[in-house]
């Protein structure tokens, strides 16, 4: 409504229909992630996806969704394509319009790979109810600001409080739950549906009521390089060779080692100095390590292992979803339980007594590294839970399933 | 990280820089709404804006930001333009790449005109602190789900709770605050910064601590037309004449009268049946009309007047920001205080006793209608507050200023 009178614009609304699209085929259902009213992208029962975008003057329009799909121009200037069947779950995707990598204007946008992508949800045929809104009591999720002494900046986290929190006086245990590379504190709420998953588990009495604190992994002290989670293509040095086919930020960088420097250490320091005290001072939280869990996906899993294994006096529950602290499968490196992770596994009896749950989850399509790690831990006498999501890759459906399996194991 | 191993992708990150951009001119500061790391769009001290987008194969790229600006292609495939000085405040904008209207991938996205636009913030030279995070106690904002008996759907609203709410036992008054056409329940939090505005007013003891409930105007019963807030271009009938230059949804429609049918009535019924009971049952809320305010911007202001004027037994404070219930300036129609709005103004003494604050706000660039309405009300003996935001149009800076002026008048 920029600079316009609302009445005038609404009057115009009845005269023009510049971006109208025809109805989708009756057996192609609009994706649940579309903006209100958008018929495309739509998903067929066999998981093919049809997309449509207006680009009347373009000479090439492509969709990047598990590969690149060339769209075809219609007489009305709309480009369409139907993709092969997609894997079930949530997928980031984007369009390439004459070399410009952009989000599809027909969907809500999702922060991943450092920018606001489009997203599509390929529903599971059965069993997807656990991450969807059901007719059960719902908790709420809070956008909580706090000032970090460590980073000297205001930070925002999402905090899920379970049904009944607002009207009870009870105290609750806390799960600290981390996103992955290129994502932010919105990921577990928006892509992951952590709130629905816990609402449903709590209603079924499968999980204890708990708080979930979802923070942003990006924590840098003044002067530290904060670029790891940035859209690295935006603002870096000029490219030696433009690669227009690459998603903004998806695989561009400044050459720095992403896991070097103090990145994980700064987050851990910030967590102990700022985040946990804020949560425990502002919310009704049960104290002590047996009421505190940490888990994360991908890089967030690596952060989880880095933070918790060095601080077992503070955490009794640990979860890595498609990401942990490595193991024998990672690049063929030797993994020695006596020395790995600062020797935390060297005394299995002591470790098993302290760590109530050590959870390793992975999608079956992601490869054997996590299974190898789990087996090596078991061989070393370290109790652990290995969870494999059938038929899913390094994506949010794997991580929703991980959370759904992990949360019931907590605080028992 | 779709289908990819995080380690592999991060390794690639050091090899390629497909979308890297050069540094912005030193006196051009990245917009505060850019995604992390993005140097463009940037804003000069005289409010000119430079934008840059990679589109190596495009033949025309334009920016729609208070007019249409043709971008120029550089040898590296990046298109750039510097716009004339922009008005201060928040502006939706978008790109047109060979006829495809899309968001700029360099910024966060904002729900307006029915889709996820890009946004740019042109900072005020002085006086903008009130809507920015300051080193004061912060409330939190809750994403609250509730089931509507009226619409038979789960709905989400945002609820701001003031600093101290979590740790006190006090009860608070409530402001119900509505967005405008094509926006949703996220608008007042994300574009409007209602949380910062109240945090700062409360810290300065200018406003009473209060809750703010920010709901979605889109409320339709099963079978009712819910398209008013949709991106009307997406999914409607085929266009008689494509208009590629028009923003998706901005001025496309189905020909229905946007203010007809039961649209406002259904929202009012939903508000009384579902929303207010949910808020009052789940939050510590003071009962009674003198602890209940309603305000809104543009169409949300019209909804406010529709809802409150017919229900003065439930509301004592009313605010219309660039939108109300009309008046003599609107289309030259005769406005008669004896009969307008169901005759609610016919007895000025009774009205003035019931309505503690009747607030009419507007941007000075928007025209005289609101001032004319205020004058007509005054002439009819109806007390009202007229607030004019200097130099701003039908945009969010007008509405931030309205809220900043309106909130201190509440619940006194």
Structure description:
Two copies of one chain form a homodimer. The first copy, chain A, is α+β, with helices and mostly antiparallel strands and 412 residues long. In chain A, 21% of the residues lie in helices and 24% in strands. In chain A, the strands form three sheets. The first copy, chain A, has an eight-stranded mixed β-sheet, sandwiched between helices. The longest helix of chain A is centred in the middle third of the chain and has 20 residues. At the A-B interface, helix 1, strand 8, strand 9, strand 10 and strand 12 of A face helix 1, strand 8, strand 9, strand 10 and strand 12 of B. Strand 12 of chain A pairs antiparallel with strand 12 of chain B, so a sheet runs across the interface.
Brief summary:
Two copies of one chain form a homodimer. Chain A is α+β, with helices and mostly antiparallel strands and 412 residues long.
Label this structure with key terms.
alpha+beta; about 400 residues; 9 helices; eight-stranded mixed beta sheet; 19 strands; homodimer; six-stranded antiparallel beta sheet
Terminal-residue CA separation of chain A: 53 Å
Subunit arrangement of the protein:
homodimer
Provide the β-strand percentage band of chain A: 15-25%
The strand order across the widest sheet of chain A is 12-13-15-14-16-17-18-19
Low-confidence stretches of chain A: 1-22, 231-261
Structural Rg of chain A: 23 Å
> What is the element string of chain A, with H for helices and E for strands?
HEEEEEEEEEEEEEEHHEHEHEHHEHEH
- Find the biggest chain interface: A-B, 130 and 131 residues
Secondary structure category of chain A: alpha+beta
DSSP E strands of chain A, number: 19
| Fraction of helical residues of chain A | 10-25%
Largest sheet of chain A: 8 strands, mixed
Instruction: State the shape of chain A.
Output: globular
Q: Compute the average pLDDT of chain A.
A: 86
Q: Can you count the helices of chain A? A: 9
